[in-house]
Amino acid sequence: MNTTEFRKRGKEMIDYVADYIETIEQRSVYPDVQPGYLRSLIPEEVPVEPEMYEDVVKDIERVIMPGVTHWHSPFFYAYFPTASSFPAMLADMLCGAIGCIGFSWAASPACTELETVMLDWLGKMINLPENFLAGTTGCGGGVIQGTASEATLMSLLAARSRIVRWIQADNPDRTESEIFSKLVAYSSDQAHSSVERAGLIGGVTMKKVPTDEKFSVQGEALKKMVERDRRAGLIPFYFCATLGTTASCAFDNIIELGPLCNAAKMWMHIDAAYAGSAFICPEFRPLLNGVEFADSFNFNAHKWLLVNFDCSVMWVKERADIIGAFKMDPLYLKHDHQESGLVTDYRHWQIPLGRRFRSLKLWFVFRLYGLRGLQDHIRKQVLLAKEFEKMVRDDQRFEICAEVILGLVCFRLKGSNELNETLLKRINSTRKIHMVPCQLSGKFVLRFAVCARTTELHHVRESWAHITDLASELLQELPH
Ligand SMILES: Cc1ncc(COP(=O)(O)O)c(C=O)c1O
């Protein structure tokens, strides 16, 4: 493909994408295919001779689209949102075109510098304490990770190396492996599975702290566990707080937990994967109060801030903790400015070496929406969730199962878990709307997360009508 053809095909592709987004709600939100559906639709081997572009494009509708779950359909209410906007898609194209691997400042200075400045912009948008920002005299700074899972793992590994360093400073005879065997990390019993996984990968015990009736960890619960473990000769070193849990969007009490972690010399990481974007609105910012006690903080701009996947933003108060934990410096990666104190080499902040120019997406989205446009988006989706909550509360057959704070509504039919499982199965098998369940206090609960940028009140009303129709049918089938 030469540049002349690229220009033509590029314009056609933009048209295809625009049509896809514009007409997406006419497609079934959930695909009707069986496992292995795709293999029989394409050849067993790669073509030896080049094919025609038209033939490839034809296969998008024949091979790919039948197996796509349409996350950007206004009828998609599963998991949490994954963000999408045209400015972010255009920035992603430019990122692909520049195609640099920005592992160090020298590997592409703009890639590194824009990232540092965008993380400062975003830090200011959510009113992060100054010491998390790079552009101040503090020792902090921000980085784009691929996912919240990676951010949690990085924070845990940095905390692990910090505690070993601290202990060995006073007790040089204690070996790393002996210390490792005594380390204990903690997270909410509502934390995302990626937190438990970070413990597994990091080779440390991860204990679950029980939550209260609002699914939130309180200081006392963590304190009890930490004291018990210390008495048993263990070394508590890390706590991962969640702001906006996956199941019900609950918030741990970081105002209590933070000082406790600081006093116990435990690293506090905050996972706000979904809820973090909402903190750009002053009315939701109080939910982040207590972040001043944290060592690291992360959220997925690719969930709710109109920046397409992947773009998980993470800040640390002491960048030396993270850089120092994993520093490798082979000759082929060195450059003249690395010890100048003026540049960041992001390869030290993450697990892979390579990294894309993801900050372009933040730059385009911030400038083309403005803070106000992004706040409008968050507020609109929260309002839609509140409208849905009202509809549920107005129907006596249903109950709300957790406080609705942001864009997620947890609800169920009053009755057995089996009844609700059947209802969800029927909802999803019609493929008109798509939702996933969660379990809260032993109950099977339906989650309605406002996801797509294009979801409007009429979509929410239509979806509720659909849910209640299916519920009525189901209830009529029950023996009276
Ligand atoms: C609270 C929370 N943490 C972590 C994750 C994992 O996110 P990622 O896919 O970015 O690793 C999720 C995913 O929804 C989440 O809700």
Automatic annotation (TrEMBL):
Keywords: Catecholamine biosynthesis, Decarboxylase, Lyase, Pyridoxal phosphate
Alphabetical list of Gene3D superfamilies matching this protein: Aspartate Aminotransferase, domain 1, dopa decarboxylase, N-terminal domain, Type I PLP-dependent aspartate aminotransferase-like (Major domain)
Modification N6-(pyridoxal phosphate)lysine occurs at: 303
EC number(s) on file: 4.1.1.28
Pathway(s) the chain acts in: Catecholamine biosynthesis; dopamine biosynthesis; dopamine from L-tyrosine: step 2/2
Family matches, as Pfam families: Pyridoxal_deC
UniProt KW Metal-binding keyword: no
Cofactor: pyridoxal 5'-phosphate
InterPro entries, per the entry: Aromatic_deC, PyrdxlP-dep_de-COase, PyrdxlP-dep_Trfase, PyrdxlP-dep_Trfase_major, PyrdxlP-dep_Trfase_small, Pyridoxal-P_BS
GO BP terms in the entry: amino acid metabolic process; carboxylic acid metabolic process; catecholamine biosynthetic process; serotonin biosynthetic process
Signal peptide: none
GO cellular component, one term: cytoplasm
UniProt GO MF annotations: aromatic-L-amino-acid decarboxylase activity; pyridoxal phosphate binding
Record text on subunit structure and interactions: Homodimer.
Family designation: Belongs to the group II decarboxylase family.
Stated name of the protein: Aromatic-L-amino-acid decarboxylase
Encoding gene, per UniProt annotation: DDC
